[in-house]
Amino acid sequence: NMAGKSRMPLDFYPTSQKLTEQLLLKYPISTDKVILEPCSGKGHISNYLKELGYLVITNDIDTNQIADTYYDATNLNYLSNLNCDVVLTNPPFNVATEILANSLDIADEVIMLLRLSFLEGCKSRRDLLNAYKDNLVKVIPISPRPCFKLDSKGSDSVTVAWFIWNKQFSWKQLDINYPFDFITNWK
Questions:
Q1: Which helix (H) or strand (E) holds 23?
Q2: DSSP code of 77?
Q3: How far is CA 1 from the centre of its chain?
Q4: In this structure, what is the dihedral angle of CA atoms 124, 3, 143, 120, given to the nearest 10 degrees?
Q5: SS3 for 57?
Q6: Burial (CB count <10 Å: 0-12, 13-18, 19+), residue 150
Q7: pLDDT 10s digits, 123-155
Q8: Measured between alpha carbons, how far is residue 41 from residues 52, 68, 121 in Å?
Q9: What predicted TM-score, i.e. pTM, was given to this entire model?
Q10: Whole-angstrom Cα distance, residue 48 to residue 5?
Q11: Sheet order of strands, 86-89 included
């Protein structure tokens, strides 16, 4: 509940380059892969990736931003027109489930900066997480908590993590029980 708190328009919270840098140290991505940044905003993630030599397709719903395309990333019809190997983004949390579902439909690897609380809650998110738990390679919490506010005063009251899914990866094939499993039917 965000009562009393104002949200940024379009849930826009820029991602520090350091967070992307640290992600790539923990989870290197081959530069021959095409990366889609479906919520590119001002390019904090995509510009850094381009500097490193990655081919990045940028998209943002906000036509005031500089991007290759301007579609709503919650719409699978748009995403299915873009060919990519990896989706890498910090999506607006209020539509992150829809963007994750669409991203998993079109890419083998999906990497999202999400609130750690993404693991809990509503049925649609729970069902999606359960459906792809065999492909959830890593969850990398970030400490200390990053500040996403533009005025940089204080810090956000939520912990975030990089969530990494790879559909070419399988815990079952490695004969390992899912390290990310969910108890969903206890009630």
A1: helix 17-26
A2: H
A3: 22
A4: -20
A5: strand
A6: exposed
A7: 889 899 999 999 999 999 988 766 665 544 555
A8: 19, 11, 27
A9: 0.87
A10: 31
A11: 55-58, 34-37, 86-89, 109-115, 160-166, 136-141
Q: At what angle do helices 17-26 and 44-51 cross, to 10 degrees?
A: 60
Give pLDDT tens digits for 78-98. Answer: 778 888 999 999 999 889 999
Q: Please count the CA atoms within 13 angstroms of the CA of 60 that sit on its side-chain side.
A: 18
Task: Determine how many CB atoms are found less than 10 A away from the CB of residue 130.
Answer: 14
Q: What does the DSSP assignment read for 118-177? A: GGSS-HHHHHHHHHTGGGEEEEEE-SSPPP--TT--S--SS-EEEEEEETT--TTTTT--
Per-residue CA distances from 70 to 18, 46, 58, 130, 177 (Å): 26, 15, 9, 31, 40
